[in-house]
Amino acid sequence: RREPLALINLKKKNEETGEEELASRLDHCKAKATRHIFLIRHSQYNLDGRADKDRTLTQLGREQAELTGHRLASLGLKFDQIIHSSMTRATETTEIISKHLPGVKKISTDLLREGAPIEPDPPVSHWKPEAVQYYEDGARIEAAFRNFIHRADAKQEEDSYEIFVCHANVIRYIVCRALQFPPEGWLRMSLNNGSITHLVIRPNGRVALRTLGDTGFMPPDKITRT
């Protein structure tokens, strides 16, 4: 609901002329800036941890986060913020990345936590969550998409560069939704740990995928998908 026509009251009349000043009102509601969204998958973590607090980054995972942070810093962009999942592995990845981006504020959110966004098509035999998990996680991850992935606000004057550190399922679902692909196909994509996915959202609402799961900045022996 960020299309300019959705932001104005078409029934409202100008008190002096009695005519709608539709063109000028539409211009006032149009976005002017481009949003650059960098979706980062967390680094490798301890799979043996039973609770989230025990699923901390491995030594290799910490090295991956350092490489990702260095890569983001090398782009020379003025990042506006880092929004990250509240899960331990995403929080730790964020802390390491943020050392390379001093002064960029960090925001934690439960919306970006890992989960089962929607039943995949085709189905897979090795991963079958309970049906209730799709209802619970799916609503939350869809809320994350609607809350974070949209054209710039009309008041935004300059292009923005934002980092989101979260999880493979969340990123894959967001990519499908942003590109208007069937979201049931999210599991057909694979993302490496510490990878960078770059979405661009133009003022007219059009979305382009610049990179998907890029880890070309990592040495081959540092790349994992766990």
Automatic annotation (TrEMBL):
Q: Which reaction does it catalyse?
A: O-phospho-L-seryl-[protein] + H2O = L-seryl-[protein] + phosphate; O-phospho-L-threonyl-[protein] + H2O = L-threonyl-[protein] + phosphate
Record carries keyword Hydrolase: yes
- This enzyme's EC code(s): 3.1.3.16
**What does the record give under GO molecular function?**
protein serine/threonine phosphatase activity
Q: Which UniProt keywords apply?
A: Hydrolase, Membrane, Mitochondrion, Mitochondrion outer membrane, Necrosis
Please give the biological process terms from Gene Ontology that the record holds: positive regulation of mitochondrial fission; programmed cell death
A Pfam family hit? His_Phos_1
GO-annotated cellular components:
mitochondrial outer membrane
* Localization annotation: Mitochondrion outer membrane
Q: Which family does it belong to?
A: Belongs to the phosphoglycerate mutase family. BPG-dependent PGAM subfamily.
Would you tell me the protein name for this molecule? Serine/threonine-protein phosphatase PGAM5, mitochondrial
Q: Which organism is it from?
A: Anhinga rufa
| Organism placement in taxonomy | Eukaryota, Metazoa, Chordata, Craniata, Vertebrata
Task: Tell me the name of the encoding gene.
Answer: Pgam5
